[in-house]
Amino acid sequence: MLIFRLPDSEVFHTLENSQEKQVSFVSFDSKTVLDFKGSIVDITKEDIENQIVSPKNKSSLIEIGKETQESYAVKISHAKDFIEKNELKKLVLSRRKLLMYLDVDSEKKLSLTKSFLKFCDSYPSAFCYLFEKNNEIWMGGFSEILGKFDKKTNAFETMSVAGTLPLDESWTDKEIEEQKAVTDYIQSIIRKFSSNLKVSSTKDLISGNIKHLKTDFTAEISPESLDKIISELHPTPAVCGFPKELCAQGIKSIEHFNREFYAGYIKVETADFIYYFVNLRCASFFKNYAFLFVGGGITLKSDVHKEWEETELKSLAIQNNLVFE
Ligand SMILES: C=C(O[C@H]1C=CC=C(C(=O)O)[C@@H]1O)C(=O)O
């Protein structure tokens, strides 16, 4: 079962009755690819609500912070050591926030389909999805594209999204440098495949309770180079770091958990476009608990308290939209 909604659209989709590979979830390390087959069809809100994908136990929302602010601070300090030793600009570190819904006396249980619809309402410009496959349930959504390819014109779009602050704070060198590392990397890749790259000015991207810095890129490419561009782009320094192999190794040794689909991407092929959405603000759901995956770019200027707060704010994208009934 897969339900999704494209950015800035009010139409929900699912897949039906065909062997065509239409949607694929690629893990952060690119080693796992989960394919969903079928033709893309519309699905109503009522039909979504009638799907049963909610964990079965009765539950209420109680948060148990497995990763504490102190343990995350130790990891941030390891990330800084790694950055210094390897003379890096940044490394993207993440945590898995554990959310328990314990059986208390309440009659309430988590409805993932209603949560999905609420999440979609809260983030209208995001690509949002909910899937259940091979005993895994994931929900997520964000507005960052790794790529969008127009099959008719061969136009390719991508973006550099990084740096995070609460809406009322002003950008500092830390966020500007963090996002510039992503912008430089993306430009260097696209220029190898296209001679007419256009780069926008850098703007704010508002995402619920927080904002990011965003630069857009457009270029004409040959359809044959699309797969290569995507595999070179992923994982960008917005979710990993540069050089990517070294940073991915550093992340693995510091984080101590498998990111799975978090910070991977989702490929969606429609009649006109091939989209590659960055899989952020996502969670995997189990019977009594969920893992909310949240991270942020660490630089030598990072403040441990602010980095923790950033991941807490990011976790609210999913957490504040969970519906218990
Ligand atoms: C890695 C995440 O965010 C990325 C996207 C936007 C801003 C980011 C940042 O400020 O660090 C990250 O690069 C995440 O949300 O887990």
From TrEMBL:
UniProt xrefs under InterPro entries: ADC_synthase (IPR005801), Chorismate_C (IPR015890)
Residue ranges annotated for the Chorismate-utilising enzyme C-terminal domain, each copy included: 69-314
Checking Pfam families in the record gives: Chorismate_bind (PF00425)
- Looking at the record's lineage, which domain of life comes first? Bacteria
Q: What is this protein called?
A: Chorismate-utilising enzyme C-terminal domain-containing protein
